[in-house]
Amino acid sequence: MESNRQQKINRLIQKELSEIFLLETKKMPGVLISVTNVRTSPDLGLVHAHLSVFPSEKGSELMQNINDNVKSVRYELGKRVGKQLRVVPELNFHLDDSLDYIENIDKLLK
Questions:
Q1: Which helix (H) or strand (E) holds 16?
Q2: pLDDT tens digits, residue range 35-60?
Q3: Residue 57 DSSP label
């Protein structure tokens, strides 16, 4: 069960990460990254963010690139939320493949 504070921080981090990735993907035409889910640990020191990538063929490549540059993403996040949070949490990114799963289920049902 998440506390009210955790839920507020989840929404704040999701909004800011979405804006960061929106600005970065404008440089790459034909690529869209959206933040689907953010979970914060109870001590607010660790964040698990689930990213959905379109087109899904580039998902693993982009996730590798994001995980290699997690320090710069955390720095950008710190500049944006530095006034609201005392400590900028560590970031863990995971690929959200639920859309691919749904497409596969639809194909199987047809």
A1: helix 4-25
A2: 999 999 999 999 999 999 888 888 88
A3: G
- Pair 89, 96: CB distance under 8 Å: no
Residue at token pair 């839920």: 7
**Is residue 93 a contact partner of residue 37, using CB atoms and an 8 Å limit?**
no
HSE-up (13 A, CA, CB side) for residue 71: 1
Query: 3-state SS string over the chain?
Result: CCCHHHHHHHHHHHHHHHHHHHHHHCCCCCCEEEEEEEEECCCCCEEEEEEEEECHHHHHHHHHHHHHCHHHHHHHHHHHHCCCCCCCCEEEEEECCHHHHHHHHHHHHC
- Given a contact cutoff of 8 angstroms between Cβ atoms, the answer to whether 47 and 40 are in contact is yes
Tell if the pTM clears 0.70, that is, is over it.
Answer: yes
Residues 6 or more apart whose CB falls under 8 angstroms from that of 35 comprise: 14, 17, 18, 21, 49, 50, 51, 52
